[in-house]
Amino acid sequence: MKEGSLYSSEEILTLGSRASQGDVRAFTELYQYFLPKVFGYFSARVKNKEVSEELTSTVFLKVAEHLQTFSPKKGMSFSGWIFRIAHNVLVDYWRSKRENVTTESEEACAISSQENLSRETETREHMRAVEQCLERLPAIDREIIRLRSWEGYEYEEIAEIVGKKSGAIRMTLSRALEKMRSCLRGFHITVQDI
Predict the structure, then answer these.
(1) Alpha-carbon distance 182 to 44, whole Å?
(2) What is the dihedral of CA 63, 86, 13, 26, to 10 degrees?
(3) How far is Cα 115 from Cα 95, in angstroms, rounded to an integer?
(4) Which residues of the chain have pLDDT under 70?
(5) Closest to 155 measured CA to CA, from 135, 140, 169
(6) For residue 171, how far is the Cα from the chain centroid?
(7) Are 189 and 126 in contact (CB under 8 A)?
(8) Under 8 Å CB-to-CB from 125, ≥6 apart: which residues?
(9) Total-model pTM
(10) Which structural domains are found in the chain, ordered by start?
(11) Which pLDDT score, from 0 to 100, does residue 34 have?
(12) Alpha-carbon gap, residue 162 to 156, rounded angstroms
């Protein structure tokens, strides 16, 4: 694996092309590179380590099974392709469970400082409000907000992951964030408070 575990988009694309042609070493590097990213993707959404591990395994089984179908000529990056698979696995999981998966936990967002309990309590209240507002949004809006705002994906990558055009992602994100702002105002919270 490359030192520092950082690859450019071109390097990932090259590894993806080599792996799709049967290069086991290239697949191993991609697996090692994407494993923590895919696991993190699921961990942030299902809040259960064992389920996240299982879903991550499912993704890599699907990647291995369908690797020969990956082609950069189809216009999708390898990263977009693998996260599109992860997105589909997550959708299948939600459908099979038919339960409401909670958003970010209070503990992940709370300030751990014991010195400022007032601030910690305020932060928890704000995060509860954010969670409630997020839950009011359609699933696709929540997904786009998470991918862009919390995981830092570019619009084009999000478009590949969720199967929409980049312009539609920008518009959906803009509208979803406005809905969030409006909802948070009902809790007397501004975006700057968070």
Answers:
(1) 24
(2) -40
(3) 43
(4) 1-5, 73, 98-124, 126, 191-194
(5) 169
(6) 19
(7) yes
(8) none
(9) 0.57
(10) 1-101 (1.10.1740.10), 103-194 (1.10.10.10)
(11) 92
(12) 10
Quote the Cα angle for 50-27-72, to 5°.
Answer: 110
Task: Please give the structure tokens belonging to residue 192.
Answer: 């700057």
DSSP 13-43: HHHHHHHHTT-HHHHHHHHHHHHHHHHHHHH
114: its two tokens: 């014991």
Question: What pLDDT does residue 2 have?
Answer: 52
Q: How many CB atoms lie within 10 A of CB 151?
A: 16
AA identity, residue 108: A
Residue closest to 184 by CA, chosen among 132, 114, 148: 132
Q: Kindly state the tokens that stand for 28.
A: 């191993």
**pLDDT at 58 (0 to 100):** 94
pLDDT at site 119: 55
Q: How far apart are CA 10 and CA 127, in angstroms?
A: 38
Q: Which amino acid is at 47?
A: K
- Listing DSSP states for 100-112 in one string gives PPP-S-HHHHS--
